[in-house]
Amino acid sequence: MSVKLSFEEKCKNIRSAVHTCAVIVAGACAVFLTVKATATTSREMDNGNTVIAKKITDKIFSM
Asked: In CA terms, which of 3, 11, 22, 54 is 20 to 30 Å from 62?
């Protein structure tokens, strides 16, 4: 038997799914930038990618 969800419940579920996807994508970007930063030979690029990755992870944990 399927349970009928109200419009509000459907919207809440969709928002939750979108939020989860956004967190996963942001986390993947942060990991990519961190790996790229550690593999970079240029110190300036390394610092830039590390700062960007830190900002992304800070935003993830503040959600």
From this structure: 11
